[in-house]
Amino acid sequence: MILAESDRVRLQSPRVVFVLGVNEGIFPAVGAAAGLFSTREREELNTFGAELPVIGTESALREQFVLYSALAAPAERLYITYARQNIAGDTALAPSGCLLRVLRPLQVTPRKTESLPAEFWVVNETTAKGRYAAALGKNRQEEALLAALLERLGEGDYPAAMKRVSRNAPAGNIAPEQARRLLGRELKLAPTAIDRFYQCPYQFFCDKMLRLRPRQRVEFSPFESGSAIHYVFQQMVNHYGSEGLYGLSPEEMDAEIRAIIDEAYEKCREILARYKTELTAVAEYLLEHETMDGDTFKTYFTQSGESRQ
After folding, report:
1. Exposed/middle/buried for 52, CB within 10 Å: 0-12, 13-18, 19+?
2. Is 4 helix (H, G, I), strand (E, B) or coil?
3. What is the DSSP-derived secondary structure letter of residue 6?
């Protein structure tokens, strides 16, 4: 099996060829002009005797040649695919015009992926699970067949779990008052959010109601990195002066930076430990109310300060 881009491989009459993603403007790609002059300007200059290559046109012709070469390569079977929407599902895609010109004389009718039988998709446990999720509630016969297959593969709990998450009440029977606490009294939704609800109520519940977000790696943002660098530089200038910094060796510079960072780190730990009770109370308040105004925030620390005294 050879997996490669069409313009990077030379096929020697293989038995079967799969040509993927033959969509308008994607494959073949739209020829793009490059350089100082646009495609239209190059064509106009050529009418006055200039001999400039029309790069956009040449690129488009080359892309079409690559497509036709791929379509003509197989000796026995040719499979062509194109997507009907982008990977995010928010933009419709069309098949390539070049592909349509090839298919019409041959009277070939494209087959939608939904019409292909289950055995076309199922080759292992992962594909069996994905196909079961697609058939759930839509094709009873295929659903039962795949449930039996998953049972034989040792994944008998998967069908029951998928049925639970596919219900319209993704977190159980949510009372109206609980929904109001999660969504608020006034609900403003964009059309994409409403579309998401009808596509997957569970995803809408996690996103709009629980406001769950993927875990992100803890790292400095550009703003935080800039603030840290500015702080270290300011401390070193205050201590050595602008001229004194020139006398430091690279090793001394690294040691001084490390000492400043370690000192700031220990200071932060000391502040967090000192106000642990207040910060915990603020976190619990935010978990319940989600927002906190400045006066309420000050109240927590004022009361704690008076209790210490």
Report:
1. middle
2. coil
3. G
Q: Which residue type, as a one-letter code, is found at position 9? A: V
Q: How far is CA 146 from CA 117, 142, 154, in A?
A: 12, 6, 12
10 Å Cβ neighbour count for 133? 16
- DSSP state for residue 28 in the 8-state scheme: T
Instruction: Tell me the pLDDT of the chain (309 aa) as tens digits.
Output: 788 787 777 778 888 999 888 888 888 877 555 566 666 777 777 788 777 665 566 677 788 888 888 888 888 888 888 888 887 777 888 888 888 887 788 787 788 777 777 777 788 888 888 888 888 888 888 889 899 989 998 888 889 888 877 765 545 566 777 777 777 777 777 777 777 777 777 777 788 777 787 777 777 778 888 888 888 888 888 888 877 887 888 898 899 999 999 998 899 899 999 888 888 888 888 888 878 888 888 888 776 554 443
CA 146 to chain centre: 29
| 294-308 vs 276-289: helix crossing angle, rounded to 10 | 150
User: Cβ atoms within 10 A of the Cβ of 2, count?
Assistant: 7
Q: 124 — alpha (psi -120 to 50), left (phi > 0) or beta?
A: beta
Q: Where are the beta strands (DSSP E) in 13-156?
A: 16-19, 77-80
